[in-house]
Amino acid sequence: MYYIKTAVIHSFKLPNLTTIAAAGFFFSGVSHLSLFNPEFKKISWKKTCLIYIFAGLPIALLAIYIPVGTLGPYMLQKVQLTAVTTADTISVDLFFIERALYIMLPLFFLLSASDFIVFGYVSWSLIKKAIKNKKLSFFTVNILGAGYTIISYLIKDTETMLRLGSLCITLALLYHLFYTTLVFILTKLKEGINR
């Protein structure tokens, strides 16, 4: 009963920007791909808001309630991967798959691999369009790839990796909000001029 009360009291605290960004990253992380894939241009703002409400909000709440309800507020301060705690708490009875963690870890790996391929292709396309010289663009791609590999090799501390990831997600959310607002204003100005 104490943990349930603690989880309810904890929910009265407003989420910080990093939590909001993490809950919304499933949309903001792919919205800019509309520049390269025409299918993304069919995104409806009403449906997007519904996705935030019915998918993003439960994801954010589950990531808070399950670890707090299971471990308590004091033990939770020592846990770094709360998403793994959330997945590990959900039990399923599927023969040898006893816990959802065994399902979630391969999914996390596949998501990371697909993100790496997609964002790598997007970066490569942007560099090719920005730098017309083929040798220079090839050299730039190799330098950036080597830098990414070296940074990934050097950062072995989980806490540092999570802190940098949270910072990147927060900056991505702020950038997308700024970029979306700017494009909206420019579109409305262009519509006003054409009338």
Molecular structure report:
With about 200 residues, the chain is mainly alpha-helical. It has a domain at about 1-90 and about 160-195. The chain contains seven helices and two strands, in the order ααααββααα. The protein has helices at about 1-10, 15-30, 45-75, 80-90, 100-130, 135-155, 160-195, and strands at about 90-95, 95-100. It has a two-stranded antiparallel ribbon. The N and C termini lie far apart (about 65 Å).
Supply database-style keywords.
195 residues, mainly alpha, flat
Summarize the entry for a quick read.
With 195 residues, the protein is mostly helical. It has 7 helices and 2 strands; from the N terminus they run ααααββααα. Strand 1 and strand 2 (97-99) form a beta hairpin.
Q: Tell me about the largest β-sheet.
A: 2 strands, antiparallel
Mean pLDDT: 70
Query: End-to-end distance, in Å?
Result: 63 Å
Unreliable stretches covering 5 or more consecutive residues: none
